[in-house]
TrEMBL record:
Domain of life where this protein originates: Bacteria
Lineage summary: Bacteria, Bacillati, Bacillota, Bacilli, Bacillales
Aerobactin siderophore biosynthesis IucA/IucC-like C-terminal domain span: 121-183
Name this polypeptide is given: Ferric iron reductase protein FhuF
A Pfam family recorded for this sequence: FhuF_C
Residue ranges occupied by any Ferric siderophore reductase C-terminal domain in the UniProt entry: 221-242
Annotated source species: Falsibacillus pallidus
GO MF annotation: an example: 2 iron, 2 sulfur cluster binding
Amino acid sequence: MYEGWTKEEVEELKKFRLIDRIPASAAFHLSDFHTSRHVRERIATTGGSGRILERQAAASILVKRLSFLAVIYFHSMTAFNRRPILDAEKIYVAEHEKEGLRLLDFYFDQPSMMPYDETIDRSIWLKEGWEYLFHEWLMPVFDVLKEEVRISEYILWENTAVYLYWLYETVLEDRPQALQDFEELIHPGAFQPNGMKGINPFNKFYFPKSLNGDGKEVRMRKTCCLSYLSDEKGTRCQTCPLFCHNRNLERGESLG
């Protein structure tokens, strides 16, 4: 059990693949995903051992799975006013299979907590958390994937952004602090990671929802996550920009 979160808070975070004990089966450390050798092995085991596009698809899916770390982190900041601090080698990553999908669970080994102090500017506290999460945990994975499979950094950032939009617009929608924290996140100057040319990725990919080719209100992606390449039927996501483009053309609509 975790000392930094209450039992009820841990139960809430379990919805996002946090686990409350060290995995009994073989597990990796998040720091393993910061190395080329381990990333190559993970990509190969998920069907990404063939042509470059298949490897890029496997890399994209890996980032989707790891993005639940960001969901756990942001949820804790907004809902509990605490952000966990621990090195990547103290985060256990365990695989499990569900309905044919390889999913990841996470165990935090004795994290310390940085609580929000109401005497300081909340935006500063939030930005410090974002910098820590991405620079220490996720951006090293992005860097390895860009080097190994030459995948666009925009795809990786949008994969993460989609989960955070969902978190704030759906899961945390009724939390008092959610709207303020979300508006802070998507502000153009809030977060400008290396490699994004002064662009906040969470602002870049955020825009009003619209109707897709099936008439559903969605926020269509600006990049294709390539997951259709790992699907036997080649099925595209409902928010895929290529899917929406093709369906609109079928209906005789111009995308202008």
